[in-house]
Amino acid sequence: MSRLPLPSIPWQLTGNHWLAIPCVHPGDGAIHRLGVLHRGARAALEFTGAGTGDARDGAPLLRPVLSVDGQPARLGESGMAWERALGWLPTFTCTVGPLLVRGMLFCPFGRDADMAGAVYTLTIENRGTVPRAVSLGLAVEPGVLVPRVRSPRAPIGRLGATRHESLVVLDPGTVPGLAALAVGADGASVVALDGAGGASVTCERTLRPGEREEVAFYVAAGPEADGAVATSAAMRRRGWRWLLTATREAIETLQQATGSESLDRLLNRNLLFAYFYGVGRALDDAHFYLVRSRAPWHPAGVTLRDWDALMMTLPAVQLADTGLARELLLRMCELHGYAPGRGVHYLDGTMFEPAYSLDGVAAYAVALERYIRQTNDDHLIDDPVVGDTLYAVHDELADRRHAELPLYATEVAPSGEVPPHPYTLHGNAMAAFALEVLRRTLDEETAREVQDPEAVRAAIDRSFARADGGKKTYRTALDLSGGEASADDAVGSAAWLPLYEVVRGDDSTYRRTVRALGDAPVASLAAMLARLLGPDRTAVLEWLRRAPLDGGVAAQWVDADGRAVANGGDAALAGLVAATVLHVVGREGGATSEGDDAP
After folding, report:
1. In which element (H, E) is residue 317 found?
2. Which of 76, 364, 370, 560 has the largest count of CB atoms under 10 Å?
3. For residue 214, what are the CA distances in angstroms to 65, 100, 191?
4. Is 286 a member of any domain?
5. Of residues 137, 159, 135, the one with CA closest to residue 49
């Protein structure tokens, strides 16, 4: 995978499963981009300002505006202070003369609140000594609708503003409709079109000294203009205060606690990012889809590898929402389980790039076992789509077995890179775990044909372990003809072995192997996370506490200080951050011991 530089602007972001808002400008609160998933297009559709469609472009789409006593005033001219309520709802505070302005942007979430929209609230307080006539509003700039799978494509329509009663509608005019926005205020407002494709929605208020007023603006999305208008009506009917309360309560139920404030901040920031940016609901069919990241500055975009979804995103979702985790596991089996481990897919399961991954095949059985252990919901294996997937996993493993040894070959490692040799330590450790699951879940006759997982583990020890200076370490890849390598995969690291119950975390051969992996000035964050299971867990955990990452969320590549250098906004990897930290530290001080490495 290519390395994509980070945006030059440190965007604020938020979203729900319907709507991703990854580009909120920290200088003036303007929204530059809103994205939805579209199953029919197999892509993200992004409403952007009329620029290039690139995440580094500076054109706004929606911009909060203020005028005082008839004179335009620029928000943020004297600076904006940003916070994130509950780690997910961006809020700003700024001053304009004697006026204090606070803003909050949130996407409704929770039972009866979850819908394809956002709410931008603005609170203004007059701290002066004379009354002020103020106008608060959202300016709607001309924009474009840009499809993106991995990189932005040519716009498929221009977003010229039109008026529908008290709403401004942005519709690209495609036939059939793909996506549209409706923007309106809560309560009385003035809607004006500028004749050049832009518009504004404003609310007029008069503030006496010491008085405070709140206004709110709804941004609703739909598959076409009428649907966006209908969503806006539903948001208005429920009211922004109720939507905010429901959203706060729902987000609080997702958050985890370890007993450490700094770790809780790291864990929950990444948990929420994985939950909302690694998972989305398509605007055109309302079904859930897993993707690598909805953030537009990650090069994998809304494509997906089996391993990314099942071993990185799903464990984080499972921590917070077992009901959604169950649904996502079924969706993975339904959309991708027909050809497990066969390559990179579009969000709907269509093949994007063929490349066989042993780790991706085994991930289905590993994820199923993890889910059952956590929830005790063993009825999931009775679902026909799960059964079909497990039989497909069995067939794939049988086809990739070495002719003589109980070891299995792969084409690519979990990172997507081609390993130096086809028989990898990480892949065979996962295969052994998967075979154990298959022996318990397949029908009796087929289960007798499943390779004994203990034989695979014994073969791993015989074939991959080498005595260097009288002390054993593991090789990471073999060709079983004398060729061997010790280079570690950036994602499928040998340090993950205790998760697959091949070795314990206190095993001496494993600990020597992990220590031999060493450090690098520019590190894979996934590899650093894997080392949390090894002998350096205390040092790595302290490094994570201080790591800036990409605005606090995972980036694929970081420097020695943990600062993102490329491929930021990695939602799947954010899930791995959250799940691994909680696995190692435990909930509310219940830290795991050095030898406790069960998934």
Report:
1. helix 314-320
2. 364
3. 14, 12, 18
4. yes
5. 159
